[in-house]
Design goal:
The chain has 338 residues and is mostly helical. It has helices spanning 63-69, 103-116, 119-137, 142-157, 166-180, 187-193, 198-211, 222-231, 236-251, 260-274, 281-288, 292-306, 331-337; strands spanning 2-4, 11-13, 29-32, 37-40, 46-49. The structure holds a DNA duplex (17 and 17 nucleotides).
Length: 338
DNA sequence: CGGAGTAAAAGGCACTT
DNA sequence: AAGTGACTTTTACTCCG
């Protein structure tokens, strides 16, 4: 939207407040100030990027200049096995001048042979379709799937595919890309849409990270919080509180060596109780894929170290229809800061 | 039922023969 | 490449209100 100010001299862009992700319709929109992006926590779609500069750096004053200066053509995609860039040779046996040329037939033959016939190319087609299938089953945005397809190409160039299952590679790559993009999926989730067992996904992932040398530090628990919260039908305040708890736990180094998912689960459990919207350990365990015992252990650590005082549990657990917040939501703020 | 807690088994990771 | 060791998580269980 363009808004013209009183003098009519300056134009400024006004960003409409996006409330839902255009791709997956999830309300988990987050502004990532460090990266200058607005991203969807659920599918990882980058809704707005480079918030300052949207347009091209050049200007054109007439049509001729525009054609000259535009550098883009048809969009390139990694999802088509030849990136959509392959050359097709026309069926007529004629060159540009219209004269018949005998070598064109030979050219066309080779072209078609090279384009799809090598076995690696065929496995790439399969891998990309698998990445696409699993990616959409996990609700991942297109750019995540694109990045996965790109990484598969890189793996192919380094000859890492030979002798390994295409399916396993594709799954591990998808898992890796999710982590890279800061929207990690658990091994359990990825495994559930793949025909490969979790164990092999993990093993292949480690192999890839060694060979392709992407330095990924372990994902932060906060990257899981949003998805788990929505799974538990928890509201925004709980999500914010849980992330706050995670951040403080990280500062106090309570998270090193622990599984990030465990920390996220514990933080959510604590946050839900603090906000008066309690979930049982069983529910949290089911939503996060960790055990109740683990939630207990982690959450006890956190509560102790951060000096959080949890409100007592109400025995009226059966369909607590009264959502009257037991204590003011702000009171927990002080407890956390100490 | 929901939570607290425990011991032992299992699993993953960084190391070493 | 199997072994080791410190570690977290899971399994299975008991106890409490």
């Amino acid at each position: 939207m363009i808004e013209v100010d009183k003098n009519g001299e300056e134009e400024k862009k006004v960003y409409r407040a996006t409330t839902k992700c255009p791709e997956c319709d999830s309300p988990l929109i987050r502004q990532d100030y460090e990266r200058g992006e607005i991203v969807c926590d659920s599918c990882g779609l980058v809704i707005e990027e480079n918030l300052m500069d949207q347009g091209a750096e050049w200007r054109a004053f007439d049509y001729e200049q525009m054609v000259k200066r535009a550098r883009t053509g048809a969009p390139m995609t990694y999802m088509i096995h030849d990136k959509g860039l392959s050359t097709f040779i026309d069926w007529r046996d004629a060159n540009v001048q219209g004269k018949s040329a005998s070598n064109i037939q030979r050219l066309r033959k080779w072209q078609n042979r090279v384009r799809v016939s090598s076995s690696s190319e065929r496995s790439l087609i399969f891998a990309i379709s698998e990445i696409d299938r699993m990616g959409s089953a996990l609700g991942l945005s297109k750019d995540v799937r694109e990045a996965a397809a790109l990484m598969y190409r890189k793996a192919m160039e380094k000859d890492l595919i030979r002798g390994r299952s295409v399916e396993g590679l594709a799954t591990a790559i998808l898992y890796a890309v999710c982590r890279q993009k800061g929207i990690p999926r658990t091994l359990e989730e990825v495994g559930s849409v793949s025909r490969v067992k979790q164990k092999e996904i993990g093993r292949t992932y480690r192999f890839l990270s060694r060979e392709l040398d992407f330095r990924l530090q372990p994902s932060s628990p906060s990257e899981f919080v949003s998805r788990f919260c929505s799974r538990l039908n928890l509201k925004e305040d709980v999500r914010a509180k849980a992330i706050e708890i995670v951040n403080q736990a990280e500062q106090q180094e309570l998270t090193v060596g622990k599984g990030p998912i465990s920390i996220a689960a514990a933080a959510i459990y604590i946050a839900a109780r603090l906000c008066g919207d309690t979930r049982t350990q069983k529910e949290v365990a089911a939503a996060t894929g960790v055990t109740e015992v683990t939630i207990r252990n982690r959450y006890k650590d956190i509560v102790e170290a951060l000096g959080i005082e949890l409100p007592q549990l109400q025995p009226s657990s059966t369909t607590a229809s009264n959502l009257t917040s037991s204590s003011s939501p702000l009171s927990s703020e002080k407890e956390l800061s100490g």
